[in-house]
Amino acid sequence: MASSLALIRLLADGRVHAGPELAARLGCSRAAVWKQLQAMPELGLTVTAMRGRGYQLSPALDLLDADKIRAALRPDCRARLASLELAPVMASTSQHLTAQRAPLAGQVQVALAEFQTAGRGRRGRHWVSPFGSGICLSLGWSLDGAPGGIAGLSLALGVAAEQALSELGAAGVRLKWPNDLVASGRKLGGLLLDVAGEADGPLHVVAGIGINVYPHAELDTALDSADALAPVALASLCEAPVSRNGVAASLINSLTGALARYQADGFGPFADRWRELDALHDEMVRVQVGSQAWQGRARGIAADGALLVERDGQLQTVMSGEVTVRSQA
User: Fold this and answer.
1) Of the chain's two ends, which shows fewer C-beta atoms within 10 Å, N or C?
2) Which helix (H) or strand (E) is 183 found in, with range?
3) How many helices (H) and strands (E) does the chain have?
4) Fold match between 66-276 and 284-327?
């Protein structure tokens, strides 16, 4: 894998590179270069062999750079940063941080990857993000004694993510309960929380977020199920060009600030903004709990972030993690 990653860096500019040039720069044979090229589709990359000219990666890649990300962090966020790890390939950024010791109170751990081999979406689905096309980011935090507990944290971080993307120029981003970022009915990204620890003690919280930054054909063909939302890319929502390093830094800034505020004040400061961004408000939804399914009209959220659904004239409370909610077109 290491040799393939070196080859990716050489091809990342999207230009045509001759086989002998690549072999010389990598210190290997042309046959070895060819073998490495055969592994590119596994990462969601397309390399075209151009007879008599060489090889071209399309589209070009905007690779992440840890130094650029650190430099773009706000001073208050940088002061909280316990670690920032960037790997070309990880099984899962969240699994990586979950396996680490929890950070000290008030500090944040960050893990990013160009590609995940076992990235997770909601309900255990595979999160598809071809190499270098999106953001695969997780943050680790020690949460102790937040008002109202942890119930609204995923929603609070959704508000923070929307703020980060809005500051980058993204238009029309909304939140679909409990953890999706959407635009025009298409999925832009999602959040997942992993929580470990005792109920009466500090909790090790790992918040994972995935964002589609650039369009990619594989996103349109790799949906896990017929009911999954079609994807949309952040770049298509912004008038100005976006940088993945800028996106990563903006998310780290906003999510770290939200974790600190949630620690102090709970979900309350985020609730009104979440309601403004509610993509399901007044929509007919289908709620499924195990094998049981019913329909109702979404009526916003409760004070703790639970979804309120009107069913036969009565408001029903739907808790995150227990159900699947689908809007009914």
Assistant:
1) C
2) strand 180-183
3) 10, 15
4) no
pLDDT tens, position by position, 12-32:
999 999 999 999 999 999 999
Residue 123 is classified by DSSP as G
Query: DSSP secondary structure string, 250-267?
Result: HHHHHHHHHHHHHHHHTT
CA–CA dist 98, 75 (Å, integer): 26
First to last CA, the chain: 44
pLDDT recorded at residue 226? 45
What CA–CA distance (Å, rounded) separates 7 from 11? 6
DSSP assignments along 298-312, one per residue: EEEE-TTS-EEEEET
> Is the pLDDT reported for residue 7 higher than 80?
yes
Cβ pair 61, 12 in contact under 8 A: yes
Listed in sequence order, the DSSP H helices in 122-266 are 153-167, 217-221, 244-265
Q: For 284-327, CATH number?
A: 2.30.30.100
* CATH 3.40.50.300 given to domain 2-57: no
* 201 neighbors 105 (Cβ within 8 angstroms): no
Measured CA to CA, the distance from residue 292 to residue 318 in angstroms comes to 13
277-321, pLDDT tens digit by residue?
Answer: 999 999 999 888 777 889 999 999 999 999 999 999 999 999 865
Is residue 89 within 8 A of residue 117, CB to CB? The reply is yes
Q: Which residues contact 93 (CB under 8 A, 6 or more apart)?
A: 111, 112, 113, 116, 119, 136, 137, 138, 208
Q: Is residue 53 very low, low, confident or very high in pLDDT (cuts 50, 70, 90)?
A: very high
Give the pTM: 0.91
Residues listed for the chain: 329
Domain with residues 66-276, CATH architecture: 2-Layer Sandwich (3.30)
Q: Where are the domains of the chain?
A: 2-57, 66-276, 284-327
